[in-house]
Amino acid sequence: MLADSQVVRRDGKLALAGELRMADATLVWRKLRELAAGQKDRLDIDLSQVGVVDGAIMSLLVELRDDLSTRGVACELVGVPSHLEPIAHLYGAEQPPHAKPEPVREDPVSRFGRAVMQVVTTVEHVVLFFGDLAASFGRSIRVRRTANWRAIPAFAVRAGADGVPIVVLLNFLVGFVMGFQTARQLQLYGANVYVADVVGISVTRELAPLMTAIIMSGRSGAAYAAELGTMRVTEEIDALRTMGFTPGPYLIFPRVAALALVAPVLTLLADVVGTTGGVFVGQTLGVSARGYLAELQTAVFWSDIWTGLVKSFAFGIAIGLIGCQQGFVTRGAAAGVGRSTTSTVVLCLFTIVIIDTLFTVVFRTFGK
């Protein structure tokens, strides 16, 4: 047990004595802080009477010295016995206190230049990624065994079958909400049966592909970025190159192909459950299930369904490529993996909206 006489203030110094071990760390720290409170001039820490000190206590003494120095109080560890010099050297007790770095203030031009360089670096990484991917794709077409095509079913199960429950639930609720929001306006004009038109067209053309893609971005895109990012920081990808495997065909192709195949299937399932959600809204408007389905057949054409499926196919490819690309450019440790995962979700959502806009304009322009 730490005695009061082991940590005292004497002759303008904090004097320590006896054996100071980890078990006394809390008491030593509290006593030192009390004795150093309100100090404005020099206050050294005297270790001349210390017989034994372990790493925990020494680190606390160095921390107290640095803390006093940042407050403008000169402080050094003095009187270190010869038998304590090795541990004092290990913890930097004889080094001058670390000066608190002054904050660096950048002018607007420097901040703008750094932002431009970050954009240029990002574009460079993307171009290199797709260049390597295109070259790898050409080689895998000529020599099919270079690509890990056998992994596609496993990735398809993870991205597709495992995501069916959430896709079904969310798209059913989206269809229900879409019909419920338009019910009042339809009732005003006595057009209750047209709830099937509103739900059917909006779900098949836009909502089902978009909601499915958003779910895949959060599940599969983020998972790909985390998996490949972890492989990147742990140098597993470099090990694959050392063993003669090309990372593109082995890691990227099966993931992208799985999403491209699964996305239309999930979207088709979302079409069914989304339009089914409108059936329950139709019941509240006095529209029977048979009448709802009959109106749905006259309102929704195969072109509406194929429009959503084509969009979902493009969404799946984009999500897979973005997730893999962000994983391959991961730097750092766990923090880098987290940043790549976050960037993947944001980029996927942004890209999905852009692709949806382009397809909508194209279908609207050339579909007349």
What is the averaged pLDDT score? Answer: 84
Helix content: 55-70%
Task: Point out poorly predicted stretches.
Answer: none
Strand content: 5-15%
Strand order of the largest sheet: 1-2-3-4
Overall number of strands: 4
Output the number of helix runs: 12
Calculate the terminal CA-CA distance, rounded to whole Å: 89 Å
Which series of helices and strands comes N to C?
A: EEHEHEHHHHHHHHHH
SSE-based structural type: alpha/beta
Global geometry = elongated
Radius of gyration: 33 Å
Q: What count of domains describes the coordinates? A: 2
Q: How would you sum up the major sheet?
A: 4 strands, mixed
Question: Your description of this structure?
Answer:
Helices cover 70% and strands 7% of the residues. The chain has two domains: 87 residues, Transcription Regulator spoIIAA, CATH 3.30.750.24; 223 residues, no CATH class. The chain has a four-stranded mixed beta sheet, covered by helices on one side. The N and C termini lie far apart (89 Å).
